[in-house]
Amino acid sequence: MRDRRHAAAPGQAGPYRAVRAALLRDPRLLLRLGAWSVAETAPALVVGLAVARAIDEGFAAGRPGLGFAWLALLGGAWLTAAVGARQVVVAVGSIVEPFREELLDHVVDGTLRRSAAAGHGPGAAAVARSNLQVELARDALASVITVVRSFAFTVVSVVLGLTTLMPQVLVLVLPPFVVGLCLFLLSLPALARRQRDFIVADERTAGALAAMAGGLRDIAACRAGDRVAADVGRQVARQARAGRSLARVTAMRTASLAVGGWLPVLLILAGAPWLVRHGAGAGVILGALVYVTQSLAPALGNLVQGLGMSGVRLRVTLERVLRSGEPPRPVTARSVPRDAAVELRGVTFAYGPHAEAVISDLDLSVPDGDHVAVVGPSGIGKSTLAALVTGLLRPDSGRVTVGGVPAERVDQASRVLIPQEAYVFRGTLMENLTYLAAAPKPAVEDAVTALGLTSLVARLGGYSAEIHAGLLSPGERQLVALARAYLTPARLVILDEATCHLDPAAEALAEEAFARRDGTLLVVAHRLTSATRARRILVMDGASVQLGRHEELLASCPPYADLAGLWNPSDSQELVP
Ligand SMILES: Nc1ncnc2c1ncn2[C@@H]1O[C@H](COP(=O)(O)OP(=O)(O)OP(=O)(O)O)[C@@H](O)[C@H]1O
């Protein structure tokens, strides 16, 4: 059975300690890996020497037999390398497999503890996701060990080989190689950070697209396509920025490869006369070039490529795996607000980093139980304000709270938004009315009476009638949506032109019913009559925002007086043409 003494190691600290523990678990495995690595990098030791001797002492000296003997030695080194490479894979496997098992123990443990704390069985999707992360971490560790080890053994072999061939060559090869390596190592932290940002941005884009695809029906029904597309678009733009920033650091990686891998070739060629003066023949120069082009440059290339990708992936996946095994944290996701008071402090919001702000530095206090109508010209930001209060949009700066809880963390059942386009699905009328909250029949009947749906229920033939969007007029759909919201326990109700398809009398009935209901009512007004019914009115007019009662605003707020002047009470003219 597997030795479990180190089984707690992954959870005890960060990724570096976990990797170190995996490497040092059994020093004999490292020795075995080292021994086979010597065999695997045998060609890097002899390749230049064999070529140089084969030319200088063999073919060029008229002794082809000796030339072929040196080449045969090189062939033998390749055979040794083949055997070594196979054994290296086995040795790397014996290091990473126990590491994988420990990580699996860790995540299964964490998943079980989490599900026990949540009171339900472990989710298959969560287990599968963790398992995938463990596999990725295992593969990344194997790749990092392979690459770093091969680099170290190759460099040592090449230095030994060049020393045997002609030590003066090292003067031309080592300085640019060390500079290239240092450049890469210096760029590694920034590269790791940006690669990580890119991986995270990539995953968030995939998550946003998956969420959008899953909610397409609702998005279409609520006509929220533009808003959702803008949100996903912002995420895509974030990913593009992360990609560009990664590309800039990747350029540094290419530069390090050029300096460390290819500058030595140029220096050997340029320094050939100097080498010849020190006794080098054509074979020595060719041998030196072979060392650099066949061993040193590829080893640096593999290190740059391998550490740049696998190293970062190892760190990101390990961090996740280690986190997924931690004890469950207290649930902080959503909170029930203490009341339905709405507060905005210094709120600024724009639909994109370069777009003009729709809402700038807005302060607003709506006490619990208030009834506020929001008016203003089309496109001024009324729906944006409603979306900010509902937590559908987050401010770029400032805070939006409901009952002291940040808007995006407010418990879903504590507030309800009814948009302009009402959502009715195929099912019975009763199912449509109680979709957001279960309600006994008498409560449903009260809502139906309060909101003026009695004749609609009669026309449809009762609550068990099957309905769908095509069967109802836009106004009837709005009535169903209003009754559905009315039946919820939400203390904060936001009507975003939710009565625009009702006639003025039906709108008055519905709004008065909501005004009588307990809690705070925010109405994005479609007609000025909505405003006069509200206790207070928020006038949005570009940069200026004013809050007050109808009479006060008529006297003190010219934009409101203008809007009111357009209004003829006898025909309940609409505010927004
Ligand atoms: N998803 C979006 N992406 C980009 N811009 C948007 C988005 N939604 C709204 N806007 C812009 O933001 C501004 C405010 O829009 P909003 O819908 O909040 O105004 P409104 O006052 O509710 O208008 P209306 O009365 O016509 O519904 C407008 O210029 C609009 O074009």
Automatic annotation (TrEMBL):
The record's CDD domains line, in alphabetical order, gives: ABCC_MRP_Like
Tell me the first and last residues of the signal peptide: none
Record Pfam families? ABC_tran
Entry keywords, A to Z: ATP-binding, Membrane, Nucleotide-binding, Transmembrane, Transmembrane helix
* Membrane topology of this protein: Multi-pass membrane protein
Give start and end of each ABC transmembrane type-1 domain: 37-298
Which organism is the protein's source?
Answer: Streptosporangium carneum
Q: Which Gene Ontology cellular-component terms appear in the entry? A: plasma membrane
The protein's name is ABC transporter ATP-binding protein
Keyword Transmembrane among record annotations: yes
Q: Is the ATP-binding keyword given for this protein?
A: yes
Cite the ABC transporter domain residue spans from the record.
Answer: 342-567
Query: Single GO molecular-function term?
Result: ATPase-coupled lipid transmembrane transporter activity
> What subcellular locations does the record give?
Cell membrane
Coiled-coil annotation: which residues?
A: none
Principal place where this protein is found?
Answer: membrane
Q: What Gene3D superfamilies does the record tag this protein with? A: ABC transporter type 1, transmembrane domain, P-loop containing nucleotide triphosphate hydrolases
- Membrane-spanning segments: 33-55, 67-85, 140-163, 169-188, 254-276
InterPro entries membership: AAA+_ATPase, ABC1_TM_dom, ABC1_TM_sf, ABC_transporter-like_ATP-bd, ABC_transporter-like_CS, P-loop_NTPase, Type_1_exporter
